[in-house]
Amino acid sequence: MAANFWTSSHYKQLLDQEEVDVVQSLDKDRGITLDDFKLIKMHMANYILKLAQSVKVRQRVVATAITYMRRVYTRKSMTEYDPRLVTPTCLYLASKAEESTVQARLLVFYIKKLHSDEKYRYEIKHILEMEMKILEALDYYLVIFHPYRALSQLLQDAGLNDISMTQLTWGLVNDTYKMDLILVHPPYLIALACIYIASVLREKDTTAWFEELHVDMNVVKNISIEILDFYENHRMITEERIVTALSKLPMKS
């Protein structure tokens, strides 16, 4: 395991938002827009969470699985890599990478419990085959650094590690996985943005503490704005929009 983020494959693979927001040509041919692309990824992140709750794995596994899924689609099309199969496979792979292994047959059992829709109902052999494709798509780089560890350390350093702030900031970090922030920003900056938002909401004066950190507050504030914009836009996302986006995916082969 890479002990230091700055020497890790995760750091070397950080992308600009413009690179993350590329819809592959095969997907464009199916009429998938950038808005559809983002909606499908958000829907699949929620699917990972539901599956994870069923098989009872910890939040870190969920976060790693979502990161894998999002990273795959910076390189591969949804037309070739069906999100309805990629999603549970990423959870399966993440459970192994995070040493909380979930049996493929258990995943398949809960997939069938969660979805009556035939398009989601894949078998063990499909997950095992897709696992190899995902490993290749990820260049076999499986170590992911998350904001959670930095968050705990920073809250303690700021003297803000009471239950209220801990729960609020933890929830904010969880919600960042509904976006692509983990592919674009170092985890500690995501943690700082969540602390910044929470300190404003809880009316905590953290100005002096942030100044002592010598971080670029413009970056922290920009990430904070992205998170708040997501909440604002999320309220306008209807089930109909998600269904329309999903309908553009190819039929299960």
TrEMBL record:
One of its GO terms (molecular function) is cyclin-dependent protein serine/threonine kinase regulator activity. The lineage of its organism: Eukaryota, Viridiplantae, Streptophyta, Embryophyta, Tracheophyta. SUPFAM superfamilies: Cyclin-like. Belongs to the cyclin family. Cyclin C subfamily. Residues 46-136, 149-229 form the Cyclin-like domain. InterPro entries: Cyclin-like_dom, Cyclin-like_sf, Cyclin/Ssn8, Cyclin_N. Interacts with the CDC2 protein kinase to form a serine/threonine kinase holoenzyme complex also known as maturation promoting factor (MPF). The cyclin subunit imparts substrate specificity to the complex. GO terms for biological process: cell division; regulation of transcription by RNA polymerase II. This is B-like cyclin. Keywords: Cell cycle, Cell division, Cyclin.
